[in-house]
Amino acid sequence: MVDQYERSAEFIDVMMAPRWPALGPVLAEALREVPGPVVDVGAGGGHGTRAIANALPDAEIVAVEPSPALRSVLLARVNDDPRLRDRVTVLPEGLLEAELPDRLGALVAMNVIGHFDPAGRNRIWESLAGRLLPGGRAVLNLQPPAEAVAVPEFRAVEVRIGRRVYEGWGRAEPAGPDRLTWHMTYRTHQDGKPVGEVGVSYDWWLLTEERLVGELEVYGLVPSRTGPAEAGMYVIAR
Ligand SMILES: C[S@@+](CC[C@H](N)C(=O)[O-])C[C@H]1O[C@@H](n2cnc3c(N)ncnc32)[C@H](O)[C@@H]1O
């Protein structure tokens, strides 16, 4: 499988970090009293894995992360914290190739569902429906835009570390009726001067709420919105 994060991994974890203070509490609420085990799909560097662990202090967690570079960050984060090390298992495959527990309390797919085409999503819903324990659920977010429209370049995030400022810029163009190509540019500045630039493109499959409802219905699953509208988060249950 192609690692779309190979060249951007060094920026991804620090650029995801500012999103998690808002996402974490909504995820924690959505997972309240859910039984383990919990699968964290596309765990990246593990901000979500840590939020799940904080929300469910006794649950076993399986963090699935196919990108070797991001998985290095994830393993280090898990290894550094004894509360994670004892109960987080990191799997190196993509979700559709990974061997998941037979029964699941939850599946968390934050900032990742666009990496799966419609056939891949159907496999996820089928696997979820077959594995969910009573009281179990999935939590995911849908990121704008929902339609295949061009997105002009904008600065998505800026992080200062030491003397350097790291900026993530994004623009997108349609790549099909329900598909975008995101072109990201990661720019580094020091003392106000540019010192580095890395450009990366990602394929992203679009999913509307309406389509999500239709895809899940086939498997007897129902999504409901959770958290503030701008988080775009859904809880999926039977
Ligand atoms: C934007 S990052 C999100 C990371 C993390 N979930 C977060 O919200 O901070 C998307 C992640 O999905 C992972 N990913 C891509 N394709 C995947 C697949 N088929 N199965 C599992 N993870 C995948 C990428 O390697 C990357 O770590």
Can you characterise this structure?
- With 238 residues, the protein is of the alpha/beta class.
- The protein is 29% helix and 37% strand.
- The chain has 2 domains: 164 residues, Vaccinia Virus protein VP39 (Rossmann fold, 3-Layer(aba) Sandwich), CATH 3.40.50.150; 55 residues, N-terminal domain of TfIIb (Single Sheet).
- A hairpin with a 6-residue loop joins strand 10 and strand 11.
- The longest helix has 14 residues.
- The structure holds S-adenosylmethionine.
- The site of S-adenosylmethionine has 19 residues, from helix 3.
Helix content: 25-40%
- Give the total of beta strands: 11
Radius of gyration: 18 Å
Determine the mean pLDDT: 97
Name of the top-level CATH class of the largest domain: Alpha Beta
CATH topology of the largest domain: Rossmann fold
* Cross-sheet strand order for the largest sheet: 3-2-1-4-5-11-10
Number of helices: 7
Number of domains: 2
At the fourth CATH level, what is the homologous superfamily of the largest domain? Answer: Vaccinia Virus protein VP39
Which structural class fits the helix and strand makeup? alpha/beta
The CATH architecture category of the largest domain equals: 3-Layer(aba) Sandwich
How much of the residues is beta strand, in percent?
Answer: 35-45%
Order of helices and strands: HHEHEHHEEHEEEEEHEE
Bound molecules: S-adenosylmethionine
